[in-house]
Amino acid sequence: TNKTSYLLRPHLFIALALLVGACDLTSSDAPGTPDTSCAFALGTDAALHVSQTCGVEGADGSVARPYRTLAEAAATAQAGDTIALAPGAYVGGLVLAGGVKVIGLIDQHVSISAGGEHVLKFEGKGSSEVRGVTITGAATRGIVVNGAAISLGGVHVKDTGGVGVYVIGAEAVDLIGTRITGNAGVGLIVKGSGKVGIIDPIYEPSPRQVSKVGIIDPIYSPGSSISGNKGGGVAIINPIYSPIKGDELAVAHLLLKATDVNGNGGFGVALYGAGAVIERSAIRNTVKGAKGPWADGILITMGATNEVPDLRIDAASVVLDNARTGVLVMNAARVSLEGDVSGNGFCGAWV
């Protein structure tokens, strides 16, 4: 199956899928079947461990004496620390120092939810990470990052009452095999930050050639998805600008690669003064948003800088079936469009 091939293929998440520190490796009703209820990701021996099943009173965060709640671990975590979560449903609404890592167990159910303003908030400098976790339920924002670099890997941010991921002043933003879906606001907002990468590093187009490009093969989709967010898909606002120079595509502010941007409200990708390279991706089915007639696949307009942005869409990408325009350019910009732009309600590209 597709899922089996995904798990067996070597990739950067494979270490997180291995189990260590299990309290009970066999379940009573299925002898020989691993029980991951007290297991942690490989390489987290020195972490602050949290397990709803194996947590103890007087915990010290070790594998043998894990905390019972995420809040206990967050209270002691400092920049450079890792919080390792065993499978379970945890309560968030927490503020963490920049540079803290929160690591769940890939392909096991690890969720963090909160009814307040946010689920997780990272404050201050440092390289923060969230991996192998589902984030859900916050009133306004799922993950908030203020000043820290952030990497999300194998994360699903869904069904919040506002923005899925909100980043200000980060040196870098990396979404790797991450989904942001069904949020009431914009899926991802990045303001005044460095380079942004949204990629699925292990995605391969289906050999069945069902569609023009593998990215929109209905039975084989990438793990990287920004979909169904009512306020818009991805907004890059007033970045620390790094325009494309020659063929050095890696220096674009936004790299969108092997990602499905599908069914968002208002816009799929909005670039306010930012440049972007879009490779092997689909920006499609954008619908009218709540704040006006906008229903554009890609919107590019001037931000706070006078730099002229670059937008490059490669031949393996599609901008399809958006309710208004496929690509809307509202200021001076350099645009290279090689992909398929068709089925859009008003026009393919309006410059």
Write the layout of secondary structure elements.
Blueprint: H1 2-8, E1 19-20, E2 40-41, E3 48-50, H2 70-76, E4 82-85, E5 88-91, E6 94-97, E7 101-103, E8 110-113, E9 118-123, E10 127-131, E11 134-136, E12 141-146, E13 149-153, E14 156-158, E15 163-168, E16 172-176, E17 179-181, E18 186-191, E19 195-199, E20 225-227, E21 232-237, E22 254-257, E23 260-262, E24 267-272, E25 276-279, E26 282-284, E27 296-301, E28 310-313, E29 318-320, E30 325-329, E31 334-337, E32 340-342, E33 347-350
Parallel strand pairs: 3-4, 4-7, 5-8, 6-9, 7-10, 8-11, 9-12, 10-13, 11-14, 12-15, 13-16, 14-17, 15-18, 16-19, 17-20, 18-21, 19-22, 20-23, 21-24, 22-25, 23-26, 24-27, 25-28, 26-29, 27-30, 28-31, 29-32, 30-33
Antiparallel strand pairs: 1-2
